[in-house]
Amino acid sequence: MDAAYLYLDLLKQVLTRNGFDENVPLTGTGWKRHVIRPAQRLVGSRGVQLTAHRPASTLERQRAEGTYWPTDAETMIGLKRLDNLQMCIETSIADGTPGDLIETGVWRGGATIFMRAVLAAHGVTDRTVWVADSFHGLPKPDADRYPADEGDTVWTAQHLAISADEVRANFERYHLLDDQVSFLEGWFADTLPTAPIERLAVARLDGDMYGSTWDAITVLYPKLSVGGFLIVDDYYALDGCRRAIDDYREREGISDPIEVIDWTGVYWRRS
What stretches of the chain adopt beta strand conformation (E)? Predict the structure, then answer.
């Protein structure tokens, strides 16, 4: 186990607050005390026992699956989807698959922070992490363009409206905000078509709605390199998202098998 593995594994625990007590601020003694748990698991895997073993709690399992969202976590996607994201990026690096990384719909920025961390851990300096979001929540449904979104109320969820300044502050908190991170602020239909993205190795879509998912995949998939990965966060959880993905795959004749990540996330590798 090398330093890169230990760093990324610890970061996943912190971003999801897995093993942390709820409502404990990550400052002062609270930070020092509650970052110890994931650190103990890491060194324990190297044969050093710092504390007695205890089985994972129900809460920790929920955080691994992304079915419980700590109030102060930077991501809600859970450990399994972060593991998948790491695998996709590291495979792209190892195979030399060209292109940048992007997430469309970033909430507090946890997944994109982790993207940048993976590049840093492997010394990759020639790829950009694109952080695409309205930073004002989701758009109101446009049932004329996207009938599948008619009646969708997710746009009213104010807890999804995280400002760009807050996301930048979260990057800075982990010392990962630099010139390899680029923000695309606005609705996907407005920002993605003109974004200076040439090629992508990993594209992670988290748009929730049919329209947001469609606006992202129709622009980004043609830029995904052969051997690149397309990840969909809410394929099984949200009907509009799933329908947009299925409609696009059918329209483009995409037959690459969809792989299951967890209870809602999926991905495939472009052949």
Answer: 100-104, 129-133, 181-185, 200-205, 224-232, 259-260, 266-269
Going along the chain from its start, the domains and CATH numbers come out as: 3-65 (no CATH), 78-269 (3.40.50.150)
63 by Cβ neighbours in 10 Å (0-12 / 13-18 / 19+) ranks as buried
Nearest to 18 by CA among 42, 2, 29, 34: 34
Q: Which pairs count as long-range contacts for 26-29, CB under 8 Å and 24+ apart, including other chains?
A: 26/72
Alpha carbon 209 to chain centroid distance?
16
pLDDT per residue rounded down to tens, the chain (271 residues)? 599 999 999 999 999 988 665 554 554 444 444 444 444 444 444 444 433 344 556 655 665 566 556 678 999 999 999 999 999 999 999 999 999 999 999 999 999 999 999 999 999 999 999 999 999 999 999 999 999 999 998 889 888 899 999 999 999 999 999 999 999 999 999 999 999 999 999 999 999 999 999 999 999 999 999 999 999 999 999 999 999 999 999 999 999 999 999 999 999 999 9
**Type of residue found at 243:** R
Give the whole-angstrom CA distance, residue 70 versus residue 68: 6
Nearest 10 degrees: Cα torsion 153, 157, 160, 166: 140
Q: What is the 3-state secondary structure (H, E, C) of 82-128?
A: HHHHHHHHHHHHHHCCCCEEEEECCCCCHHHHHHHHHHHHCCCCCCC
What is the value of pTM for the model shown? 0.85
